[in-house]
Amino acid sequence: SRRLDLRTGELRRHLYWTPDSGATVELTFTRFASLVDPHAFALAVPAIPGLDFSFSGIKTSFLYAVRQGEATDPSFSMSRRDDLCASLQRAIIDHLLAKARRAMRAHGQERIGIAGGVAANSGLRMRLQELGTKEGWQVFVPPLAYCTDNAAMIAMAGHYLYLAGHHAPLDTVPVTRTS
Fold first, then answer.
1. For a FRET experiment, which of 22, 35, 65, 69 has its CA 20 to 30 Å from that of 174?
2. Which H or E run includes 112?
3. Does this model's pTM top 0.85?
4. How many CB atoms lie within 10 A of CB 15?
5. Interval 68-82 mean pLDDT
6. What is the pLDDT of residue 144?
7. Residue range 137-157: average pLDDT?
8. Phi then psi for 164, rounded to 5 degrees?
9. Torsion of CA 131, 147, 110, 48, to 10 degrees
10. Would you say residue 92 has pLDDT above 60?
């Protein structure tokens, strides 16, 4: 599968509350899970065929929910922040797990793992474990210490390539996606 647009982490910059709004979403989930309503806002469910991911519909419906709320209450995004966070996290995780289930069934797999920065999300970790139990999958979730952002891994790979003498000219055009 491929991601067609935004990464999950890019959605958090649309939460205007803190420099690291991903941490705000995670904090809301872990500390206030029993006090928030992850179904408070019905966010769009992407209907992308196949195994590809798209988060732009979730982002758009989230922004509309915030704009609509702020039109009647200027403090809406702060007063409803916890429910907004929980609803956003639920929509993202629902999309990720729907695609994971589809891929596992399509390819007859019984083992699944997650990695990268998204693997640090406790909601995703918990719901993947639950889905794995329900589906009879063996689920591999690394310890949090190994759930680093992929950018750090790419930077380290670049560092070692540089040390090995592999350089690219400054006019090299990066390729972000292949067809």
1. 22
2. strand 111-113
3. no
4. 19
5. 90
6. 86
7. 85
8. -80, 0
9. 70
10. yes
The span from the CA of 7 to the CA of 53, in Å, is: 9
pLDDT at 113: 95
Nearest to 103 by CA among 122, 124, 126, 131: 131
- The more confident residue out of 123 and 132 is 132
Mean pLDDT for the chain overall: 82
Pairing of strands 111-113, 138-140: parallel
Helices within the chain (DSSP H only): 8-11, 21-32, 56-72, 76-79, 81-106, 122-135, 150-163
Question: How far is residue 34's CA from residue 13's CA, in Å, rounded to a whole number?
Answer: 25
What is the rounded CA–CA span in Å between residue 58 and residue 11?
9
**How many CB atoms lie under 10 A from the CB of residue 35?**
10
